[in-house]
């Protein structure tokens, strides 16, 4: 009897097993995408790089802190001190606190150290000393001088343009506020309140523009005494706060009871505000062409990197102080150009806004005093035929006297 055939082995369902087992790679990517905190951490900063940037970071921090300081308006005493014959000694003694000089510590120190390294190498290995002819320096020195002069002049032109734009804004605000304060006769209480609110809007515009074009300004603190809490919240919620205040001024002019011609003249004064916004935003947003700034920086760096090699044959170890003096002088000129390229931190904007505010309030008190005196004189002239000051009460009396 033949043996039964062996049972057939059951087929292995590899595809089913493969489908049931999750893909570890795909699962890992899914987790990494949903939980960003499980991503690999960035490498820690290089200690050597942090050490090399410690001095530049310190110098930049000191310079930025000094730039944020408020600039005062000069008084007669300060002008007398400014032109004093002792100013040179005073400026020399305050060199270590100058933000321009502090910002030059990293580049000047680096180039002086490089000059000392070149001098040391040339002294230890005189047969392979690093030397070169000074003829290229003699040919390129005028080009470097012209480059620095043009850079500084371009920066000062921006500074002067920003100063003039800001002065036009202040002049427009003073003129518009004067027109609002001028009253033709007795006014109702609500009309007087509306004029007071409009005057505060006008005085608030330079403050809002100042906060708009300078960094680290607390606009809520600056406008706290000028605007009501509701108006201040509307201004703070706006993306462009100076234009929001212009809208407050424009709407107030429409609501108040002004003559049509006078209202048109006052609305035309808002062009000073709009022009000031455009000019200031362009100065802040568009610097001196970057290629010009980069060219000046690269020229100065290459100049001082090769200066010890050029001067070694004639000066030997004097190349170290010579490089220090040259770097401190030329980089100082370039640094002044960079600082005044952004004019508004250099101007006394806070002091000028306060001066405008104080002058308008003083003008209001003077206006009330003068108005009361003139009203009293008018009443006295009506009571008497010929007042003490010699004014005639009518044209008929004037003809009679003649």
Task: Describe the protein.
The N and C termini lie far apart (168 Å). Helix 9 (135-181) packs antiparallel against helix 15 (270-285), helix 9 runs parallel beside helix 17 and helix 16 runs antiparallel to helix 17. The protein has a domain at 160-286 and 348-401. The chain has helices at 14-20, 24-34, 47-52, 54-67, 76-82, 87-93, 99-103, 105-124, 135-181, 189-213, 219-222, 229-237, 241-255, 260-268, 270-285, 290-315, 319-341, 349-383, 395-401. It is 73% helix and 0% strand. It is built from 19 helices and no strands. It is an all-alpha fold and 402 residues long. It is found in: Membrane. Residues 1-27 are annotated as: Disordered. One of its GO terms (biological process) is regulation of photosynthesis, light reaction. GO terms for molecular function: voltage-gated chloride channel activity.
In short:
One of its GO terms (biological process) is regulation of photosynthesis, light reaction. This protein is mainly α and 402 residues long.
